[in-house]
Write a structure and sequence with these properties.
The protein is globular. The protein has a seven-stranded parallel β-sheet. Strands 8-9 form a two-stranded antiparallel sheet. The protein has one domain: Glycosyl transferase family 29 (sialyltransferase cstii, chain A). With 361 residues, the chain is an alpha/beta fold. One of its GO terms (molecular function) is beta-D-galactosyl-(1->3)-N-acetyl-beta-D-galactosaminide alpha-2,3- sialyltransferase. Pathway: Protein modification; protein glycosylation; Glycolipid biosynthesis. It holds the Pfam family Glyco_transf_29. Its EC number is 2.4.3.2, 2.4.3.4.
């Protein structure tokens, strides 16, 4: 009997190890730098986003796989957190049935280009802040390999400031818009209803939705996992606010999709409201809603300071005091984007009133 105990212990140890490593197997693919010597590069950019950094690696090592799939569903504990953000009272069994139906329509496996020593994936994450007006960032944004846009953010009529290229468009039902056949829909579900809406939009109501103009390429749909939302809320934001904003979730997600990340169109106006470049906000007291806007902004600034992203702060009117400080006047920012494949220098005249620091380091 005593001789069997070491054997049983060994079997249990192996089973535990298999569980741990299977959970982290996707991280081995995406974050090779965590397991490579520090002098090896995971991309061909001049400076790779995921090169070893203790602060960033500590944040990212806890990450689950970001996208839902039939083999990457969530735990009941994560479900209970997720349903709480929108006070959805329906149960875990219904959620699982809904997810099963989703993947009868959309691709069960998400395909995106992963880091490679011979690739440099440059990305522009384009928010919707009013500071994009007059920024003239359009050509710079379109230069990137990947352009990620969020919610209603239009390009038509705003090309000079926001460009017209879109690779990934992040949306949920209330912000849905038509996409062309080459643009990925990155769907953010905040409740079971959102997943059911996605199913209805592309099954029995297909003819109706076609008439109403609701269009996207079903082969290019990617669905964010509620586990990733919880991870960002707990690990990045330390549970500040009720849940992360769509913009901040998108920014953290971009760290998985890209080797170089440039961020545009984030930040509140002088009254602390998240205003938009394409419309006037009606509720001047909304501020940042249920989201921890100030904490999110501080993280963006820290990522910029740590040279993990470039944060382009856009334009403000002269002498406007913002929640994030008072700035200087007109500046000409020379932005250099380097990689082993490209070398482009773009000089952009930018009004930097109302912001702290340089446009990009």
């Amino acid at each position: 009997m005593l001789q069997r105990k070491p054997f049983v212990f060994f079997v249990l140890l192996c089973a535990t190890a298999i569980g741990v490593f299977s959970r982290a197997s996707w991280i081995l693919n995406v974050y090779q730098d965590f397991f490579l010597p520090q002098n090896e590069s995971v991309c061909s950019c001049n400076k790779c986003l995921m090169e070893y950094d203790p602060w960033l690696s500590e944040l990212m090592k806890e990450s689950p796989e970001p996208f839902l799939s039939p083999t990457n569903n969530i735990s009941e504990n994560t479900f209970n957190w997720w349903k709480g953000i929108q006070t959805d009272r329906r149960n875990f069994a219904l959620y699982n049935k809904t997810v099963d139906k989703v993947f009868q329509i959309f691709p069960p496996k998400v395909n995106f280009t992963r880091s490679s020593p011979d690739l440099c994936r440059t990305c522009a994450v384009v928010g919707n802040s009013g500071n994009l007006n007059g920024s003239h960032y359009g050509p710079l944004i379109d230069f990137h390999d990947i352009v990620i846009r969020i919610n209603r953010g239009p390009t038509k009529g705003f090309e000079r400031d926001v460009g017209n290229k879109t690779t990934y468009h992040v949306m949920y039902p209330r912000s849905f818009k038509n996409l062309d056949n080459t643009t990925h829909l990155v769907f953010f579900p905040f409740k079971i209803y959102d997943l059911q809406w996605l199913i209805r939009s592309f099954t029995q109501r297909q003819k109706e939705t076609a008439k109403s103009g609701l269009k996207t390429n079903t082969d290019m749909v990617m669905i964010l996992s509620p586990a990733f939302m919880k991870y960002v809320h707990y690990v990045w934001l330390k549970k500040h606010g009720r849940y992360p904003s769509t913009g901040f979730l998108t920014l953290v997600l971009s760290l998985y999709l890209c080797d170089e990340v440039d961020v545009f169109g984030f930040g509140a106006d002088k009254n602390g409201n998240w205003n938009h470049y394409y419309e006037q906000i009606k509720n001047k007291r909304l501020k940042t809603g249920q989201h921890p806007g100030r904490v999110e902004y501080q993280y963006i600034e820290k990522l910029h300071k740590q040279r993990k992203i470039h944060f382009f702060r856009g334009c403000r009117r002269p002498h406007h005091k913002t929640p994030y400080g008072v700035e200087k006047g007109l500046a000409a920012a020379t932005v250099e984007l380097h990689s082993s494949r490209k070398h482009v220098i773009s000089t952009v005249a930018v009004n930097t009133h109302g912001y702290r620091g340089s446009l990009a380091s």
